Amino acid sequence: MNILKKICKTIVNILLVLIFVTPFYWMFLTAFKTISQTIQMPPLFYVLDPQWSNFSQVFEKIPLLHMFKNSVLISAGILLCQAITVIPAAYAFARYKFAGSKVLFGLTLITMMIPSQLIFLPVYLLLSKLGLINTYASMILPSACSAFAIFMLRQTFMQIPEELVEAARLDKASELKIMLKIMLPIARPTVTTLALLTFISSWNDYFWPLVLTTNDTVRTLPLGISMLKAVDGAVMPYHIIMAGNVLLVIPIIIAFICAQKQIIQAFTYVGEK
Amino acid sequence: MKSKIRPYLMIAPAMIILGVFVIYPIIYMNYLSFFSWNMMGSMKFVGFDNFKTLISNKDFHQVLGNTFKFVFWTVGLSVILGLCAALYLKANTKINAFLQGAIFVPHIVSLVSISFIWMWLMDSQYGLLNYWLGLIGIDPIRWLEDPNVAMTSIIIISVWKSIGYNTLILVAAMQGVPEYLYQAASLDKSPKVTTFFKITLPMISPSLFFLVLMNLIAAFKIFEPVYIITNGGPLNSTNTLVNMIYEEGFVFYKIGYASSIGVVLMLILSVCTVLYFHMLSRRVHYR
Predict the structure, then answer these.
(1) Which residue of A has its CA nearest to B37?
(2) Is there a domain that residue B48 lies in?
(3) Average pLDDT for B262-269
(4) Is A213 contained in some domain?
(5) How far apart are CA B42 and CA B47, in angstroms?
(6) Residue-wise pLDDT tens digits, B1-49
(7) CATH code at A140?
């Protein structure tokens, strides 16, 4: 009975690995195949002569380094802007009672339920009226604040004991000093978690770059990779698409392997609130 | 005096960004839905005409049906399978941690990559899936070209991507259930199924509620896989609301018409959110 149970468990485990790991293995493998190997039947499950030239072809087809730079700059810009908008707002909502604070906080929560896929048209019209299409500002501004982050950080700030702040006030510490030197260090796990989540989502984002750009000036990596789809012949160049995919996925997978615990904790932490 | 304006100054940057890039656009979208406009010429007020066209448009009926079908199956399957996986993986062992990680990875990988990987796996001629089906004697399936199958394929891809996140949240919720409840149950010799329905399920239900709402909103805004893999086809069979907004807005430049579809999506999302908070408050009330 016990042995049977163990065998069943092993089979289920193997199935899970097959279902969730094979697609990524297939991506890596295809990235190193020649085009004739990709359409070979039965398919090859290993490659003896890896085609590194697939990767150089990616560089030829899209301005990869430029897009990589854009991805880094835009992700960093979004992180910086969110730090500036989110931290003081969360602090104010947690620590001050002021006229209209409930209404404004409620409004902030409502924006959490409005996905970008709902409002992209008016946002595009607004940014084009401001003449910001194809600028870094247009890529950063729509994500420059996160209602969700304000909500999470406010929760954390509210859990910090009032006595700590009172003590600091008695020492005549300025409010700015209290926020930066006392509250923020205590809230650091939450801040790192939120930064991690923001970085992952802005690095992966395909939607805003797609709707807000008309040329390559500020286009990011995910959009570039999707442009590899353009077919030359009758067959989709899957070996090149997958090579591009590998370049897009590798930073995320390496980050996940190195910081699996933190990343899993970050996502769980958010779900539990 | 200074301390009175301080909180307003602190929330100002956040409020300005949210106001300009979320609140204003949603109001502007509602306004635009009453106009006919191609982005270049002048705007013409048309009253409810956009909505009337929408209601009589057969394609829109299909898109609405597609979206609901997608949402129902994706949310249902990914929450139920996530629950199964969480029950299976909840014990704190090394193998389970590895498996949890493995099924979670798709959640943090870009939708662009996911879409291309599955497009390749589901290729009707050279795809790995059809090769494996062939080994067990099943005829090749035209995963993405058959109008009767394509939506199922998109659902499979989306479920595959979102199971890991649901599992993660539910495992955390299950590990948070106090051990003494289970000990009491085992003292009473209660069968495993009863323990699940009487202890585990009620204890994790707040997380479950939250997950369903998050999955619902995520499913209604489905766009990337549809746009990249099938672009709504074949025969409109995978077209969804957001893809239709994109098409009408950015391909045909019917801004007013596209906005009216946006208004419909907004109403659907509002109903989901209101229902969620209603159920949440009732639960808290009667407990």
Answers:
(1) A125
(2) no
(3) 96
(4) yes
(5) 16
(6) 467 888 999 999 999 999 999 999 999 999 999 999 988 888 899 989 9
(7) 1.10.3720.10
Is residue B123, in this structure, part of any structural domain at all? yes
Of A20, A93, A111, the CB nearest to B103: A20
pTM equals: 0.91
Do B14 and A241 lie within an 8 Å CB cutoff?
no
Residues pairing with B35 in the sheet: B45
Question: Would you state the structure tokens that stand for residue A96, as one six-digit string?
Answer: 């001050």
Q: Are A226 and B101 in contact (CB < 8 Å)?
A: no
Counting the structural domains of chain A, the total is 1
Helix (H) or strand (E) holding A118: helix A116-129
Of all residues in chain A, the one with the smallest CA distance to B221 is: A117
pLDDT over threshold 70, residue B284: no
Which position has the higher pLDDT, B7 or B286? B7
B127 to chain A nearest CA, in Å?
A: 9
CA B190 – CA A207 distance, rounded (Å): 50
d(Cα B44, Cα B133) in Å, to the nearest integer?
Answer: 55
* DSSP string of A159-196, one letter each residue: HS-HHHHHHHHHTT--HHHIIIIIIHHHTHHHHHHHHH
Number of structural domains in chain B? 1
Closest residue in A to B255 (Cα) is A121
The pLDDT tens digits for B91-103 are 888 899 899 999 9
- Between positions 39 and 68 of A, the ones with CB within 8 A of B are 39, 41-43
Give contacts of A22 with chain B, Cβ < 8 Å: 128
Q: Is residue B172 part of a domain?
A: yes
Name the residue facing A248 among B107, B110, B270 (closest C-beta): B110
CATH number, domain of B235, equals 1.10.3720.10
In chain A (273 residues long), the average pLDDT of successive 10-residue segments reads 87 93 94 85 84 88 92 96 95 90 92 92 94 94 94 90 83 81 86 89 94 92 88 74 92 85 78 58
Calculate mean pLDDT across residues B203-217. 88
Nearest CB partner across the interface for A30, out of B13, B23, B120: B120
